[in-house]
Design brief:
- The chain has five helices and no strands.
- By secondary structure, it is mainly alpha-helical.
- Helix 1 packs antiparallel against helix 3 and helix 3 packs antiparallel against helix 4.
- The longest helix is centred in the last third of the chain and has 32 residues.
């Protein structure tokens, strides 16, 4: 399948769902929504995941795109770490944690596969 725009990328699609879920969770608990610094940090991580996929796609080269996918994956790891904080502070339930963590893990696997594909494409040209 040819990717013509960043919206076609499955990892971006999954990260969009993840971002929406993070925003929903951050509003679902009064303590969570009042913890403005933490709420800002966790939502920024989620936004960063999808934003870096989009930005990398627009850079015009596989090597540069792979670099942005690594940044996106780093933001995703940061988000996963913050999910533990949200769970420990009882901002989210264990059920919500498991659901969102699973979604973030799926997104991470998609990004990793895409990075491998791009690296193989880069190496094939050398």
């Amino acid at each position: 399948m040819k990717i013509n725009k960043f919206e076609d990328i499955q990892a971006w699609q999954e990260s969009r769902i993840l971002t929406r879920k993070i925003y929903e969770l951050s509003e679902s608990n009064k303590s969570f929504s009042k913890d403005l610094r933490f709420k800002s940090q966790i939502t920024s991580c989620a936004v960063s995941v999808m934003s870096n996929i989009a930005e990398g796609f627009s850079r015009g080269g596989n090597k540069e795109f792979a670099r942005f996918l690594f940044i996106s994956k780093g933001s995703l790891s940061e988000l996963q770490s913050q999910l533990y904080i949200a769970l420990d502070l009882k901002y989210i339930t264990k059920k919500d944690f498991d659901e969102v963590f699973q979604l973030s893990d799926k997104t991470a696997r998609l990004i990793s596969k895409f990075i491998s594909y791009l690296k193989n494409t880069i190496n094939a040209k050398i």
